[in-house]
Amino acid sequence: MNRVKYTLLSILIATSINVFAKESNSISPSLTEVWQPVKKVQVENSIPSDAIVLFDGTSMNAWEQANGKFMGEPITWDVENGVMTIPPRIKGPQNIRTKQKFCDIQLHIEWRIPTSLKHKSGQKDGNSGIFIQQRYEVQILNSHSNETYANGQAGAIYKQSIPLVNASKPTMEWQSYDIIYTAPRFDNKKELTQSAFITVLHNGVLIQNHSEILGNTVSRGAPSYQQHGCEAIKIQDHSSKVSFRNIWLRKL
């Protein structure tokens, strides 16, 4: 009896598939072809035409100081041969941030660690960071020949997400981050409804794959979210002469 039921079921399924196939073949392929709108993006020198150029090797007009009483003033980083470099500290940290504010973005940034210091481990060798929306840090560090905690190495979402692999180059070699970032969402009661997510390619290698951000970057304690809107991109001065070039982003 079970064999008969199985045979009947098989016949029914085969018949349904044949009917569906015949109906599908009668549908014109053009009914599922979408032609508008047409997106035309031209790429010149690896920069998409719809990108916002934040540093092209000359002008620092897209940036301002991001510290204390100097907040909003012109930045004082050194610019030479198309490269901007964190200067020696004179009056405390010289963090910088973009004048524009952003939410969901694709960000490209190239950076270079200075000749390795005497430190063989820890957080003092080439330390900087990219703070998305001024609060979520993608770590910059010499992680080619410098031992430190895994969630503090280059490419880490600092103290939160360990990179999938160490893709670091030696000091004095140019490196790149390509970052895809989705901002967190909050309701009208300022409660979090969706965490931020981030994907990072380090020198073309995937190291963060749609990683969930757990909250503001903190060096001590647990991260947490506080409601915010679109915010600037900040680059950290951590007492190391890290250099940067070719910075651009696209709003998503």
Description:
By secondary structure, this protein is mainly beta. The chain has 2 domains: 2-31; 43-251, Jelly Rolls. The chain has one helix at 2-25; strands at 43-44, 47-48, 52-55, 63-65, 78-80, 83-85, 96-98, 105-112, 128-132, 136-140, 175-182, 185-186, 192-194, 196-202, 205-213, 234-235, 243-251. The strands form 4 sheets. Strands 3, 5, 6, 8, 11, 14, 15 and 17 form an 8-stranded antiparallel sheet that branches. A 5-stranded antiparallel sheet has the order 4-7-16-9-10, with no helix packed on it.
In short:
This protein has 252 residues and is mainly β.
Report the strand count.
17
Distance between the ends: 60 Å
What percent strand?
Answer: 25-35%
Name the quaternary structure.
Answer: single chain
In CATH, the architecture of the largest domain is Sandwich
Determine the mean pLDDT: 90
List keywords for this structure.
Jelly Rolls, about 250 residues, mainly beta, five-stranded antiparallel sheet
Layout of SSEs?
Elements: H1 2-25, E1 43-44, E2 47-48, E3 52-55, E4 63-65, E5 78-80, E6 83-85, E7 96-98, E8 105-112, E9 128-132, E10 136-140, E11 175-182, E12 185-186, E13 192-194, E14 196-202, E15 205-213, E16 234-235, E17 243-251
Antiparallel strand pairs: 1-2, 3-17, 4-7, 5-6, 6-17, 7-16, 8-11, 8-17, 9-10, 9-16, 11-14, 12-13, 14-15
